[in-house]
């Protein structure tokens, strides 16, 4: 990868947001997949959010939506269940502004 391609990859997500939610329950490889999505999203400049409690958490907002950080997924492969991480809380009005620009 050239320097220009590397820089272009790091700016693909600027101004975008990704919501990560799972349906719950154990699934082989889910933690690794969630971790990869978060890290690639952050690397490319996107804001990444965890949505706890599946679609209901997306509807309810509040404590169910938290911003992901690089550190919040650093121990994810050792966790038993995906999205058991901590971060900043957001409400649905705030997220609507981010997701629907």
Automatic annotation (TrEMBL):
Residues 18-78 form the Phosphofructokinase domain. It holds the Pfam family PFK. InterPro entries: ATP_PFK, Phosphofructokinase_dom, PKF_sf. Its cofactor is Mg(2+). GO terms for molecular function: 6-phosphofructokinase activity; AMP binding; ATP binding; fructose-6-phosphate binding; identical protein binding; metal ion binding; monosaccharide binding. Coiled coil: none annotated. GO terms for cellular component: 6-phosphofructokinase complex; membrane. It comes from the Eukaryota. The keyword Kinase applies. One of its GO terms (biological process) is fructose 1,6-bisphosphate metabolic process. Keywords: Cytoplasm, Glycolysis, Kinase, Magnesium, Metal-binding, Transferase. Pathway: Carbohydrate degradation; glycolysis; D-glyceraldehyde 3-phosphate and glycerone phosphate from D-glucose: step 3/4. It catalyses: beta-D-fructose 6-phosphate + ATP = beta-D-fructose 1,6-bisphosphate + ADP + H(+). PANTHER family: ATP-DEPENDENT 6-PHOSPHOFRUCTOKINASE, MUSCLE TYPE (PTHR13697:SF59), PHOSPHOFRUCTOKINASE (PTHR13697). This is Phosphofructokinase, muscle.
